[in-house]
Amino acid sequence: MQICYFLKNYATKSKKIRIMKKLIIITLIITCFSCNSNAQKTKKDSKTYSVTKTEAEWKAELSPMAFYVLRENGTEPRFSSPLNKNYKEGIYVCAGCNTALFKSEHKYDSGSGWPSFDKEIKGNVAFSSGSEMYGREEHCAVCGGHLGHVFNDGPKETTGLRHCIDGAALKFIPKNE
Asked: Distance (Å, rounded) from C-alpha 168 to C-alpha 10?
């Protein structure tokens, strides 16, 4: 109200124009940032996966931590997974559907506290939204289970990627089994 009174009674035409331009710019900025609502974000749950189960079936088959990570997009505590320091030869599969996700030859110690890989098995890991700071989300392409995030700070001599994966989302199958 006070701005309107000032504009009507005291401001010159050029001041009115400058004030109006600033108000329009501020309104545009607010509008742009407010358009990032949850209603406009896509959810991976809208995709149909070849392995689907009810919440009760997932809970019956998975450990509480695996359910939390895979089905609720949770994160296990750092350094809590025995797979973090597993250096045996073999393959890492999805704890939800047994899809092969990562090979042991692509695992390395990133110091992050979670199993890290520089390369996924193509076609078995899917990626969705993310950011530079939090990485892009990774999930199993077969059951949709949340695996972790991929960052661009991996080994430069290979892919430059760090697939930071929750150990609870994985099962390890040793070579020759």
From this structure: 67
Round to whole Å and give the CA distance between 23 and 20. Answer: 5
Question: Which tokens is 133 given?
Answer: 């700071």
Confidence of residue 135 (pLDDT cuts 50, 70, 90): confident
Pick the closest to residue 96 from 33, 127, 153, 139 (CA basis).
139
- Convert the pLDDT of each residue in 32-49 to its tens digit: 454 433 333 334 456 789
Please give the DSSP secondary-structure letter assigned to residue 168.
G
Kindly list the domain boundaries of the chain, sorted by start residue: 2-37, 51-174
CATH class of 51-174: mainly beta
Residues assigned a catalytic role? 164
The rounded mean pLDDT for the chain is: 85
